[in-house]
Amino acid sequence: MAAFDLEEQEQISQIKGWWESYGSAVTVVAVVAALASVGWQGWNWHKGKQGAEASALYAAVQEAAGERNAQKAREAAGAIIEKYSGTPYADLAALLSAKVQTEAGDLKNARVPLAWAAEKANDPALRSLARLRLATVLLDEKAYDEALAQLQAPADADLAARFADLKGDILVAQGKPAEARAAYQAAVDALSAAVKQEASALREIAQAKLDAVGGAQ
Asked: Rounded to whole angstroms, how far apart are CA atoms 96 and 77?
């Protein structure tokens, strides 16, 4: 029994020695791991809370769009962009609010959410769509150089033909038929292999525009 007690005491002494050497480091690691776990859980909770609040505001934007209430849509979208810009709802709210403002004839207020989305939308495809719509608004305002500037950045592949077609419209408005022909030709070429009915219709429109400015040279 005495031998067992002595062996036990030696083990305890070894453990004490090990703890004196490494105990502080182990404590630090344990504390860091615990804090990381709590932080991760807190972050997930925060993200979930943000998503729920942004979703509620986006529902308000949708409701305003249905009512054609431009002010209500603008305010709800602005709140999402201000508080929840990192959520997908901010991208969608910006585009929907701009649509409502445009339909109300308020191009000035349509430009604001489109400019934000064109630069900061989380989804690259939506950034391209926002640039396209912003360029359309700028064309309506006769801000031709600004409109063309929105079409210089690489477009989402699915929007390339629309970018080229709109560029042709802007160049026609600027009195540059030769450059417009090149843009319309690019649109026709991009749509030539399309099989969807919508793409076919767009190709016919682009071809008609190309013919109107003198056809392919």
From this structure: 8
Residue 106's contacts (CB-CB under 8 Å, 6 or more residues apart) are: 70
Q: Give SS3 for 181.
A: helix
How many other CB atoms are there within 10 angstroms of residue 175's CB atom? Answer: 9
CA angle 49, 53, 55 (to 5 degrees): 115
Rounded to whole angstroms, how far apart are CA atoms 123 and 120?
9
Q: Which of 66, 65, 114 is nearest to 90 (CA)?
A: 114
Residues 6+ apart with CB under 8 A from 79: 57
Q: For residue 88, give the H/E element and its range.
A: helix 88-103
State the Cα–Cα distance between residues 137 and 98, nearest whole angstrom. 10
What is the reported pTM?
A: 0.72
Buried residues in 62-96 as b, exposed as e (16+ CB within 10 A): eebbeeebbebbbebbbbbbeebbebbbbbbbbbb
From residue 156, how far is each of 121, 123, 127, 128, 186 by CA, in Å? Answer: 13, 11, 9, 6, 15
Residues shown for the chain: 217
Report which secondary-structure segment, H or E, holds 122.
Answer: none
Q: How many helices (H) and strands (E) does the chain have?
A: 9, 0
How far is Cα 186 from Cα 176, in angstroms, rounded to an integer? Answer: 16
d(CA 60, CA 63): 5
Over the stretch 32-82, which tens digit does the pLDDT of each residue have? Answer: 555 555 554 554 444 556 678 889 999 999 999 999 999 999 999 999 999
Three-state secondary structure call for residue 143 = coil
